[in-house]
Structures are given as C-alpha cells and as structure tokens.
Amino acid sequence: MKYDIAQAGRRAALGVGALTLIIVGLGFLTTALWMYLSLISEPMYAALIIGGGYFGLGLILLAVSTHRSPHSAPPHARPAPPTESVANAQTLVEAFISGMSAGSRAKRK
Question: Tell me: the pLDDT tens digits for 85-96?
C-alpha cells in the first residue's frame, strides 16, 4: 500500500513538473512569435494574431470539453426499479465476497 502512494506522489510530481515546463516553453514561444511578427508587421497586428490564436484554441478546447459521447447515458435516466430485492441482494453479496476473496488470493501471489 505504501508503495502505491509513493508511486502516485512521484507521478503527480512529474506531471506538475512537466506542466510547469510546458507553460514556460509556451511563454518563450509566444515571445519569439511576438518578436517575429513585430519585425514583419506592426506590434498591434502581432498582438491581434497571437491573441486570436490563443482565443481560438481556447474555444476549441472548450468545445471539446463540453462534447458528449453518443454512448453516454442521458443525465435524467432513472435506474430500473428493484425486482425481488432479497434474491438480488443475496446474489450481490455472494458476488462481492467472491470478488474480494479472488482479489486477496491474487494479491498474495
């Protein structure tokens, strides 16, 4: 158990480090683009191009994040009503105990 927590912490730290480096790199790339666009045009046009690019990418990411998969269940779907709840509960408990014992046997190996 301790190993899993340490591994998760290490992965999280690497992810934060990678995200930090990506943000710093994006800053340098934006500055380089600004310098180049300022050389070939006026600074106002450079700002419009860079701002429009970031705005457009933000809109695309927003659209992708709000897109629903056609296979997902609608949010207003109701669960099926319970039938023969005592028999179903007994079967569910037996399946749960079977899965727990199989998992503990697999962990020991």
Answer: 666 777 878 888
Phi, psi of 64 (to 5 degrees): -65, -40
Entry pTM: 0.53
Three-state DSSP state, 73:
coil
The pLDDT value recorded for residue 81 is 60
Q: Are 18 and 30 in contact (CB under 8 A)?
A: no
Radius of gyration of the CA atoms of the chain, in A: 27
And the tokens for 72? Answer: 């997902």
Taking the C-alpha atoms of residue 35 and residue 30, their distance in angstroms, rounded to an integer, is 9
Nearest to 50 by CA among 26, 30, 36: 30
Which single residue is written with the structure tokens 């779907």?
A: 77
Q: Largest alpha-carbon pair distance within the chain?
A: 77
Quote the CA–CA distance of 46 and 52 in Å, as a whole number.
10
